[in-house]
Amino acid sequence: MALFKKKPEAEISLQDIILPEHVGIIMDGNGRWAKKRGLPRSAGHTAGAQVFRKIARYCSNIGIRYLTVYAFSTENWKRPKDEVDALMRLFKDYLEEAIRDFKDDSIILRFIGDRSAFSPELIALMEENETESKDRDGMVLNIAMNYGGRAELITAMRQMAREAADGTLDPDSIDEQVVSDHLYTKGEPDPDLIIRPSGENRTSNFLLWQSAYAEYVIMDVLWPDFKEKDLDAALIEYAKRNRRFGGV
Ligand code: IPE
Ligand code: IPE
Ligand code: MG
Fold it and tell me: What confidence tier does 28 reach under pLDDT thresholds 50, 70, 90?
């Protein structure tokens, strides 16, 4: 799967490698980026949102088929109210222009996570973005908002239990495919590569089921400083990995 032509490091370009079909990004480090500059954390989120636009478009241009970005976790509600409020304003401003923003790139927008916790206005904007972009033919961009891997699995388990109770699902038929089909990412391939900027070595509850065999690339750069060349570096690192999936 990960083909890597033996060339000196400096000469390797994206043309030489097989790209992952599905990339996940944990967009982390906004707060530290702002702190380093003596700015409020919200300024880091604003800068991070700009980087998100740029990197999403770049992924689409180079031929990534699925991109899942972690924008807000089920645990991020614990943050101070002013930070959560600033993030909600940012989401709203962004979603108002997202349809236009990604139109020329034919990007299909999907939101994964429990959206019921958001304001009716934000929920309506998510639905509008999904409906308006669903017939495009470009990259699928999943934006994980109020997403948690455990919460996603609980939702799936409850749904399967309901189907079993009403007789539409035979418990013995539950296999990996059936579970995958009850997740927000139903019908999508599992992520091949998950990039975490900001240097933290943990999943923080991102795509727990789907990432069973994902390659992780942890990078020291903070998300608002993340450049196209950092994505290239992660893709090249991914291509060097020997994915065995438990085989030899
Ligand atoms: C990621 O950046 C954005 C969200 C979690 C919403 P952080 O805000 O976690 O930035 P750090 O990790 O504190 O630097
Ligand atoms: C993960 O980052 C969530 C997002 C990037 C949206 P966090 O900053 O919330 O994760 P922890 O707290 O460092 O594990
Ligand atoms: Mg963080």
Answer: very high
- What is the spatial distance between Cα 138 and Cα 141, in angstroms, rounded to a whole number? 9
**Secondary structure of the chain: what % helix, strand, coil (to 5)?**
45, 15, 40
Q: How many Cβ atoms are within 10 Å of 234's Cβ, its own excluded? A: 24
pTM for the whole thing?
A: 0.95
> pLDDT per residue over 42-79, tens digit each?
999 999 999 999 999 999 999 999 999 999 999 999 99
* Ligand nearest to the backbone CA of 206: 2
Q: How far is the CA of 28 from the centre of ligand 2 (A)?
A: 6
Task: Indicate if ligand 1 lies below 6 Å from the C-beta of 76.
Answer: yes
For 86-114, what is each residue's pLDDT tens digit? 999 999 999 999 888 888 889 999 999 99
Kindly give the pairing relationship between strand 193-196 and strand 108-112.
unpaired
Catalytic member of 16, 30, 61, 76: 76
Ligand 1 neighbourhood includes 72 CB (under 6 angstroms):
yes
**C-beta separation of 29 from 197 below 8 A:** yes
Distance CA 243, CA 220 (A): 23
Q: Which pair of structure tokens corresponds to residue 60?
A: 């689409």
28 catalytic residue (yes or no) = yes
CA distance 209 to 144: 15
Decide: 31 in ligand 1 pocket, CB within 6 A: yes
Ligand 2 neighbourhood includes 219 CB (under 6 angstroms): no
